[in-house]
TrEMBL record:
The chain holds residues 200 to 461 of 461 of the full protein. This is histidine kinase. Its EC number is 2.7.13.3. It comes from Brevibacillus fulvus. It is a multi-pass membrane protein. It is an enzyme of class 2 (transferase). Keywords: ATP-binding, Cell membrane, Kinase, Membrane, Nucleotide-binding, Phosphoprotein, Transferase, Transmembrane, Transmembrane helix, Two-component regulatory system.
């Protein structure tokens, strides 16, 4: 009897092991599929500007000698596509870097968020056109354990988006502490994101409006990078439509204030 009991015990354990192994295999397969999809998407994104450049080079070869308008148009287009390629490659490199956890964060230090916010206020103040009002405000204390460069990068991405997709009105950044987290809200009165698109905007290369995204110089990688930076800091990022139809991004980072007291 005891031999049979131990047999069934072994069988149950084996069954558990097999199912754990299967679920691990599923996860590996899923991650490989995502990786393959990423490589396919990245290749496609890199290929598009190259195809356009190739087209204009052919045009130049055929007509460039004779017509100065063709020359000018072709050179301007080639320059624009080169700029797009270079931004895309830069974003791909940043994404690769921030997704190489846990080594991606190098200079984590407990500090106040205020100097970063002051820097952002200064830098973006002159970038926004006059008809869009930019406000950067905060309520101290704002103590966080952060890689300052990365958090600056995060805010730059969010402000760049707010600027790209806001034609009039205002953009506001507000930072405050709520219980054990430091919150940063970036809100705009821009064109907004349709409700059904919201779950996808953190996906790599996802653009709500492909044509507009491209002409704005967007790579579709900004929010994916932003999300990776926040996750590296064990924080959380979410995006929603505001009542006026604009966009609000809500970031939370663990507060260092409470952690120290604990
Ligand atoms: P992109 O480089 O194209 O801006 P992102 O990953 O930063 O890529 O954003 C993904 C998409 O989400 C954008 O193409 C845009 O359609 C939408 N989006 C992001 N931020 C905003 C915003 N503040 N207002 C409206 N749409 C936005």
């Amino acid at each position: 009897l005891s031999a049979r009991m131990s047999d069934s015990h072994v069988a149950a354990e084996l069954g558990e092991l097999v199912s754990a192994f299967n679920s691990l295999l599923d996860r590996v397969e899923e991650s490989m599929k995502r990786q393959q999809q990423f490589v396919a998407d990245a290749s496609h994104e890199l290929k598009t500007p190259l195809t356009i450049i190739d087209g204009y080079v052919r045009l130049l070869q055929r007509w460039g000698k004779h017509t100065s308008e063709v020359r000018e148009e072709a050179l301007a287009a080639i320059q624009q596509e080169c700029g797009r390629l270079s931004r895309l490659i830069q974003d791909l490199l940043i994404l690769a870097k921030v997704q190489r956890a846990p080594f991606a964060i190098q200079n984590i230090e407990i500090q106040s968020l205020v100097p970063v916010l002051q820097e952002v206020k200064q830098a973006w103040g002159s970038v926004f056109p006059h008809h869009i009002e930019l406000t950067v405000q905060w309520r101290e204390p704002l103590l966080v354990a952060i890689d300052r460069e990365r958090i600056r990068q995060l805010l730059d991405i969010l402000l760049d988006n707010a600027k790209k997709y806001t034609e009039k009105g205002s953009v506001s950044v507000y930072a405050y502490t709520e219980r054990d987290v430091v919150c940063i809200d970036v809100e705009d009165t821009g064109i907004g994101i349709p409700q059904e698109e919201l779950p996808h905007v953190f996906d790599r290369f996802y653009r709500v409006d492909k044509a507009r995204g491209r002409s704005n110089g967007g790579s579709g990688l900004g929010l994916a990078i932003a999300q990776s930076i926040v996750q590296l800091h064990r924080g959380h990022i979410s995006i929603k439509r505001t009542v006026t139809g604009g966009t609000k991004v809500h970031v939370t980072l663990p507060s260092a204030q409470l952690n120290e007291q604990e």
